[in-house]
Amino acid sequence: MVQRRVKQIGLKIVSPNVLDMTLVDLPGITKFPVGDQPSDIEARIRTMIMSYIKEPSCLILAVTPANSDLANSDALQMAGVADPEGNRTIGVITKLDIMDRGTDARNLLQGKVIPLRLGYVGVVNRSQEDIQMNRSIKDALVAEEKFFRSRPVYNGLADSCGIPQLAKKLNQILAQHIKVVLPGLRAHISNNLVTVAKEHASYGEITESKASQGALLLNILSKYCEAFSSMIEGKNKEMSTSELSGGARIHYIFQSIFVRSLEEVDPCEGLTDDDIRTAIQNATGPRSAL
Asked: In a designed cystine with 37, which of 33, 74, 223, 266 is the match (CB 3.0 to 4.6 A)?
C-alpha cells in the first residue's frame, strides 16, 4: 500500500488589531477508512490531535455541531483527556440554523448538558450555498446576528453568541492564558539558553583563520575519538548501572547472542555424506582432496 505524506497548509494573516496567535485546524475523527486510507486511520488522527492539544500552552476549541449528540462529541471527549481541569477548553456549537424543527441548543449553550469552565459559544457559519454564491463574510456576520436576535429562544444569549463574540472571548482568554503560562515559558527558555551556552563553550573559542579552524576541528574529532574509545573500553565517566553499554554490550552480543545463534544452525541440514563428499571433490578440481 502506498501511503501519502500529509503536508501542512500554512496561512499567515497580519493584523494590528488582534493578538499574535497560531491557529491549528485539526481534522475530525475518521471512523472508517475510505479509498486508500490506512486501516488505522482513526488511531492516527487521534494521536495527531492529542500531540497538539496536550500542550499546556494551547487553548482548545472543541467544535461540535448542534444537530448531534453532545455526549458523543469526539472533540469534547479528547479535550477532557488533554485538559481534565477544563482550564483551556472552549466549547463551540455550530450548525444552529439547521437543527430539527422544535429543537434548540439553549441548554447546550448554557452548559446544562456538559458543563465547561470557559463555557460555550454558538456560531452560524456560511453554508456551502453561501460560499458558492460568493456571499461576503460581512453579510454572513450580519445574517448571523439577525439569526440570534430574531429567535426568542436565543434572544437572551445573543450577546454571548456569534463569531465576533467568539473572537472577543478568545482574545480575552488567550491574554489571561498567556499571563499564566508566561513565567513557566520564560524559565524553560532560560534553562535552554544556559544548556546551549554550556554546549557552545565546550566547542572552544571562535576562530577566523583556516589554520585555527582546522586545529579546532581536529581537537573536536580527537575528543570524540577519546570518548568513543572510553565507551568501548569501559572507562566512560558516566557509566550506566542499569544496562550494558559500549564494549560490554558488544562482548555480550558476540559471546551470548551470536554464539547461541550459531549453535542453533545445522550446517549439514538436508545434506548426506555423499552430497558433502561430492561437493568437496568438485571444489578441489583436478587436485586431490584431503
From this structure: 33
| Strand duo 89-94 + 120-122: pairing | parallel
The three three-digit cell numbers of residue 208, written as one number: 577566523
Predicted TM-score (pTM) of this structure: 0.60
CA dist 27 and 45 (Å) reads 7
Q: How does DSSP assign 178-228, residue by residue?
A: HHHHHHHHHHHHHHHHHHHHHHHHHT-----SHHHHHHHHHHHHHHHHHHH
Distance CA(165)–CA(146), nearest Å, equals: 14
pLDDT in tens, 70-114: 888 899 999 999 999 888 899 999 999 888 888 888 888 988 888
Q: Phi and psi of 285, rounded to 5°?
A: 65, -130
Backbone angles phi, psi at 31, to 5 degrees: -75, -40
**Which tens digits make up the pLDDT trace of 46-72?**
999 999 999 988 889 999 998 888 888
How many Å apart are CA 117 and CA 182, to the nearest integer? Answer: 21
